[in-house]
Amino acid sequence: MTTDYRPMWQELGLDLEAHDSLLQGLGETYQNIILSQKNRPETMAYLDFVMSEVHGLRIKELLDAKKDGRKVIGAFCVFVPEEIVLAADAILVGLCTGADFAMEDVEKILPRNTCSLIKSAFGFKLSRACPFLEAADMVVGENTCDGKKKAYEQLKELIPNLYIMDLPQQKTVLGKQLLRHELQSFLTVIENLTGVKITADRLRRGIEISNNKREALMRLSRLRAVDPAPISGLDALLINQVAFYDDPLRFTESVNKICDELEERINLKQGVFPAGTPRILLSGCPMAVPNWKIPWLIERSGAVVVGEESCVGERGWRNLTSNDGRDVDELLDAIVERYFNIDCAIFTPNTDREEHVKMMRQEYQADGVMHYSLQFCQPYSIESLPMECRLQDDSINFLRIETDYSMEDIGQLQTRIEAFIEIIS
Ligand code: BJ8
C-alpha cells in the first residue's frame, strides 16, 4: 500500500494492533504461497494489486460510496442474492472467514469443536480487525448448517445489524416457497435500508451484472480443462475468492482479460506446469481468503488443481439467473429458481452435487478427486463418505481430507497428498 490508511482504519473503529498483525500475516502468506509461483499469467498482476490494496483502496472505495449514500452489505454465504443488492445500488461484499484469528477469545464463546469457518467470522469481529465487517451497514447470516445457525444467535450480540435469512433444507415445493418468501423479505429489507424502490429495470440490471461475473468465472473454469493447464489452481482459486469483494464490473472485465491471455497460452501450448502433470479436482467446503493450504500442498507436490466444486468455485457460479421476467415478481421467481439449484450439503438429499462432481471430473480431465472438509463440518464430512464409495465404483480415484486453518498438520497432509498423486499418475 502506498498511502497511509491508518486514519481511515481508525475512523472505522478497527483495533490497529490486531489489524496490523492480520495484514502482516496476510502479506507474508501471500508472498510465500501466491507470489512464489512460477509461470503466472501476466494479467494476474491485477489480482496482486487488488490483494495489496484489499484493506486500503477497496475500503476507501466502500467508504466513499457510503458517503454518497450507498449501503454496504456483508455476507457469509452464496445464498445471499447479489442481484437484489445491486438492484438497490448497494454493494455486496463476502466476509473473509479463511483464517484463524483471536481463537482464544472465540473459544470462550463457541465450543472448540466448531468448524474453522464459523470461528473465523467470530475472530474477526471480536478482534475488530476486519474493515469489511466494520464498514458493513448490514450483515446477512443464513440458516444453513446447524453450526452457523446456532452461532448466529451469539453473533447477533456482537453485530446488532445482523439480518438472518431462513433457508430450506429440502428441494420440495414447500422448500421453494420458503425460499421465495425469504428472498421477498430480503428484497423489502434492502429497499428499506437503502431507500431505493427496486423496479423491474433495476432488478434486470442487477441480474445482468451478476450473470456477467458468473459467465466470466465459468469461462475461466472451462479454459482449465486444457492440458497443459494454462493457470495454476492457486491463482484460479484466488480469482474466485476476489470475486466476493471486488467491484463486480471491474472484476468481470479483469477476469475476461485473464481469460484472453489464457487462450493465447493455450494456442501456444504454454502451461503453468508441463503437459501430463497429474490433474486434481477439489470438492467440498468453501475456501475463503487466505485459505490456500490444500491447493498449495497439492501444487508443490507435483500436481495441478483443475477445478473447484465449491461455493468459492463452480458451485457458486455455474447457475445463471434468467432475465426474461416481465415484472419484479417474475424476476424474483427467476432468482429463486437460480438459488434453489445451489447444491450445498445443507440440503437433504443432495444427489445433484455428486453428479456435478462426476461431470466436472470428466470435463476437466481430472485424474482424481480430492474431497476437502473442514473439521467438525458435518454436512460435507458426512456427504464425503457415500460420494467416495460411488466415485470409486466408477473407478475414480478419491481422497478424503479433513483439516482446519492451522498449519500444524501440513507434514501429514503432504505425505497423504503425495501418495495420492503417485497413485493417480
Ligand atoms: S451455500 S457451503 S457458503 S452454507 S464448513 S459453516 S457448512 S460446518 S460454509 Fe457454505 Fe453457503 Fe452452503 Fe456454500 Fe457449516 Fe460446514 Fe462450517 Fe460451512
Set out the fold topology:
Layout (H helix, E strand, L loop, with lengths): L5 H6 L4 H19 L10 H8 L4 H11 L4 E4 L6 H6 L3 E4 L8 H4 L9 H12 L3 H5 L2 E5 L3 H13 L3 E4 L7 H22 L5 H24 L9 H10 L5 H20 L11 E6 L8 H8 L3 E6 L4 H4 L10 H13 L10 H13 L4 E7 L3 H16 L3 E7 L6 H15 L1
Parallel strand pairs: 1-2, 1-3, 3-4, 5-6, 5-7, 7-8
Helix pairs in contact: 7-9, 10-16, 11-13, 11-16, 14-19
Descriptive account of the structure:
With 425 residues, the protein is α/β, with parallel strands linked by helices. The chain has two domains: 165 residues, Rossmann fold (3-Layer(aba) Sandwich); 195 residues, Rossmann fold (3-Layer(aba) Sandwich), CATH 3.40.50. The longest helix is centred in the middle third of the chain and has 24 residues. The model has no long low-confidence stretch (mean pLDDT 97). The structure holds Double cubane cluster. The site of Double cubane cluster has 20 residues, from helix 7, helix 9 and helix 18.
Report the structural category. Answer: alpha/beta
Which fold name is given in CATH as the topology of the largest domain?
A: Rossmann fold
Count up the helices: 19
User: What's the CATH architecture name of the largest domain?
Assistant: 3-Layer(aba) Sandwich
Compact description:
The chain is α/β, with parallel strands linked by helices.
Essential attributes:
425 residues; alpha/beta; Rossmann fold; 2 domains; 8 strands
